[in-house]
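Workshop exercise sheet. Pairs work together: one partner reads the sequence aloud, the other fills in the structure field after running the prediction. Swap roles for the next sheet.
Pair: D.N. / O.F.
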Amino acid sequence: MENSKGNRNDTNMGAIMELRGRSLLIQISKDLDHHNAVMIREKADKLIDKNSINQIIFDFSNSEFMDSSGIGVIMGRYRKIIFTGGKVAVTNVNSSVDRIFKLSGLYKIIDKYATIEEALAIS
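Structure field:
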């Protein structure tokens, strides 16, 4: 359920979403895969459209795996905000997910930060 801050604490969805100004923090609470990609994408898109989001931060602290559906979620959100000057960042990426980002070429368009705070400071 969404609270007044726009948070969505729904672990069944696979992510916790939080608005921080015009930034959307998406804390992946499970693996980012085909099981939860559609729900994460739909909820993120609603929040992006409703709140004029210009930065999306995907936090992988609680996730150990991402498949091609996860790549699609990230690429789709990137395409959604890039034309309005927005950007996408990832934080707390483990070695397995980091390898997927490197192999897919996502790091060419998406910045990686050690912490959420570091990513927010750049916005």
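Discussion prompt: Residues 1-8 have pLDDT under 50 and may be disordered. What would you look at next?
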